[in-house]
Amino acid sequence: MRELDFLLGSLRCLGRAAGSVLTARARPILGGHFYELDLTHLRPGERQRTRGSWVLGWDRVDARFVSYYFDDVGTRGTSASPGWRGGRLTFTGSYVTGGAERRVTARTRDHPR
């Protein structure tokens, strides 16, 4: 889990196009075996606020990171990552989006180390 320590603490991301704001607070849970990110996504133009949780952990059997996401608009899903490759950390998985009620495949990628 040490490879994900950069997530711990608080962060705020500003969206360029729509002016959306994403805030997160990350902390270790369950004895440090998992990290939980409490997320809030605010879209000022739509006056919509979404609250969600993203839980990340290390799967020792398959030697990969696993994640679980859920929020208050019904989006939920899981993804996995083999860890840092070429300076990038990429999670790939399937999610059911709340509003559209359809399954999508998502990729989240962190900035290079």
Task: Walk me through this protein's architecture.
By secondary structure, this protein is an all-beta fold. It is 0% helix and 63% strand. It has strands at residues 9-14, 21-29, 34-43, 48-59, 64-71, 76-81, 84-85, 88-97, 102-109. Strands 1, 2, 3, 4, 5, 6, 7, 8 and 9 form a nine-stranded antiparallel beta sheet that branches. The radius of gyration is 14 Å and the shape is globular. The mean pLDDT is 84.
Distinctive features:
single chain; 113 residues; mainly beta; nine-stranded antiparallel beta sheet; 9 strands; 0% helix
> What general form does the structure show?
globular
Radius of gyration, in Å, reads: 14 Å
Helix fraction, binned, reads: under 10%
Mean of all residue-level pLDDT scores: 84
Order of helices and strands: EEEEEEEEE
Query: Separation of termini?
Result: 16 Å
Q: What would you call the structural class?
A: mainly beta
User: Low-confidence stretches at least 5 residues in length (pLDDT < 50)?
Assistant: none
How would you summarize this macromolecular structure in one to three sentences?
The chain has 113 residues and is mainly beta. The protein has strands spanning 9-14, 21-29, 34-43, 48-59, 64-71, 76-81, 84-85, 88-97, 102-109. Helix content is 0%, strand content 63%.
List the helices and strands and how they pair.
Layout: E1 9-14, E2 21-29, E3 34-43, E4 48-59, E5 64-71, E6 76-81, E7 84-85, E8 88-97, E9 102-109
Antiparallel strand pairs: 1-2, 2-3, 3-4, 4-5, 5-6, 6-8, 7-8, 8-9
